[in-house]
Amino acid sequence: MKIISWNVNGIRAIAKKDFFKDVEQMNPDILCLQETKAQDDQVAETLFGITDYKIYSNSAERKGYSGTAILSKQEPLSFSRDMGITEHDTEGRVLCLEYEAFYLVNVYVPNSGNELKRLDYRQEWDKAFFDYLKKLEQNKPVIVCGDFNVAHKPIDLARPKENYNKTAGYMQEEIDGMDRFTQGGMVDTFRHFYPEKEKTYSWWSYRAGARAKNVGWRIDYFLVSESCLPNVKNAFILMEVMGSDHCPVGIEM
Description:
alpha+beta, Deoxyribonuclease I, Chain A, six-stranded mixed sheet, 8 helices, 14 strands, globular
């Protein structure tokens, strides 16, 4: 089984590029998308041509903002949207599919934003999301993937010194949030297989030709419950796949 996660930065925008061809070539069993920037009916309409997958989506109340979707070849046992917390459930950021052996959670974690206006909220979110995953884990192992909007370690971004505690995505408070996941029983699959692999990123700013120069950040992850780890055979980042400011990341099980 191959599961891929991709922040598409607008499902309707990327659909006008090579998205459908890329999906066909990647051929995932499950594809998790973040930042769809579309309502549920618009997601369904945009993905109408994809017939091999069941499509599930979770949209923000605010139109053209945030949003997640999952395409799955296998029909899940059940699916649910959001965390069940009113203050966190208006932006379509969490989508969960339950399968026989695991829960799959697709997440688009809030960005702390320009001038770090949402950094306090982000810390509340990180804690609530961790608790949500731990609750699921009481029933069966969890695989969580998506855009976590944080580079965890210095190796995970091209310019750590310049950005540390100055830039959203590499504030100590955000790093602490990621530590909570990795110290709380969730394994970063890419670093499990490639603990010292450098210059492998999943997001690049549109400014100053960052992608061409590979001045990037690894902010898209697959975390799995420790009990699930023996079933994960590999983790990968498809840096060559274009269409968004993020590239797809994935695991093979």
